Amino acid sequence: MLNISGKPENHSIEQKSIIFKTLKTPNAGKVLAKVLLSIAFIFFILLFFPWQQNIRGNGKVTAFNPVHRPQVVESVIAGRIEQWHISEGQYVEKGDTLLTISEVKDAYFDPQLLERTKQQIDAKEQSIAAKQEKSNALKQQIKALESMLEVKYTQAENKLKQVEYKLTSDSVDYEAEKVRFANQENIYERNKKRYDAGNIALTKFQELESKFFESRMKLISAENKFFQSKAELINAQVNLSGVKAEYLDKISKAKSELNNTDAQVFESQGSLAKLNNQYANYETRSGFYVLTAPQAGYVVKALQVGVGETIKEDEPVVQIMPDNPDLAVEMYVNAMDVPLIEQGRKVRVEFDGWPALQFTGWPSVSVGTFGGVVRVIDRVNSPTGQFRILVTPDPEEEPWPEQLRIGSGTKGWVMLDDVAVWYEIWRQLNGFPPSLYEAPQEPILQGKEAKK
After folding, report:
1. Which residues contact 214 (CB under 8 A, 6 or more apart)?
2. Residues 6+ away with beta carbon under 8 Å from 313
3. Residues whose CB falls within 8 Å of the CB of residue 424, separated by 6 or more in sequence, listed in order
4. Is 62 left (phi over 0), alpha (psi -120 to 50) or beta?
5. Distance between CA 444 and CA 446 in Å, rounded?
6. What's the pLDDT tens digit per position in 114-150?
7. pTM for the full predicted model
8. What is the dihedral of CA 434, 438, 442, 447, to 10 degrees?
9. 3-class DSSP assignment, residue 404
10. Can you tell me the distance from the alpha carbon of 196 to that of 310, in angstroms, rounded to the nearest whole number?
């Protein structure tokens, strides 16, 4: 068979086979294909490798114990800076003098304020002592008046009884004289009739008449004595009531004066307590003229400068950083991740300025990171909506660098459980939270808590 050119068709096919045989696949292409296949195979194998899930958070270095955190020393009173006794960066012990201030309020300008206040206290104490002596004297006076009342009242009662006895005696005499007078009157009337009839002599009648008048005089005398005894009885009763009223009045006046004196004593004691309080305040205030270090540490920064500068009450003056703080990391995590974090969870921490290479899913191959343990999880969120956790060094890992300073930035990864790489990729693509299969058996504690 002939082709279009007129040459046999078999001859054309042979030429094409010869051309194909002379063409060869480049070696670079084969190598690239093999590399891509190897990478694909390795990637496929890696999809089934374990990947440790983690929760990422940023934070900074702080002190776990609040006492070890930077502290600001404030001035309790307003004053004027007179002298600085320290410089920034200097190490101070607890109680070392930081600066001295002077008074700026006119109420405390008197250099002898404490001495004069003490004199007022002494004078007030002497006044109280004098009033207490007066009170004691009035109490003795009241006791004496009560005793006199008892004595005088007893005397008046005895006098009343005497008058009652006398009235009884005079009453009996009066009744007897009335009987005798009645007899004499009867004798006199009968003998007068006899005398008028001329039966008895004049001398006998005059004798009987004399006895009659004598009996009447005795009756009148007995009657007067009886009425006099009645009057004495009334006077004795009045005297009894008068004695009681007189001494009760004196006792009441003495008690009133005693109450007034006691009230003055109590008022003076209140003034004395006020003066003592004022003296204690002055004495305490005098101790605030010297500001001392509350604990050992380094002076970070003087917040007030110069000599002669006036500072207000509770105004920060200097900042101190305690020595050898127990470092911790203050890390913030999202609210959706908080339920997955518990005390005792392992954490990998990367510090700013410290070279590190972190493989989040394979912490064992990470370089430059340090181990930590979750110690505290806040129960309320921060103003940014995140939750704060405190991480302390892991005693089973390498110690944290000594060069760390409080306030340095950090990055952290709270380690959870292992899952397949393919699952982690799928979770990340879908934005699902990490999975938590089991919590740590027991939180890792340090120091005394671990011993307990």
Report:
1. none
2. 75, 76, 77, 78
3. 51, 53, 361
4. beta
5. 7
6. 889 899 999 999 999 999 999 999 999 999 988 888 8
7. 0.56
8. -20
9. coil
10. 136
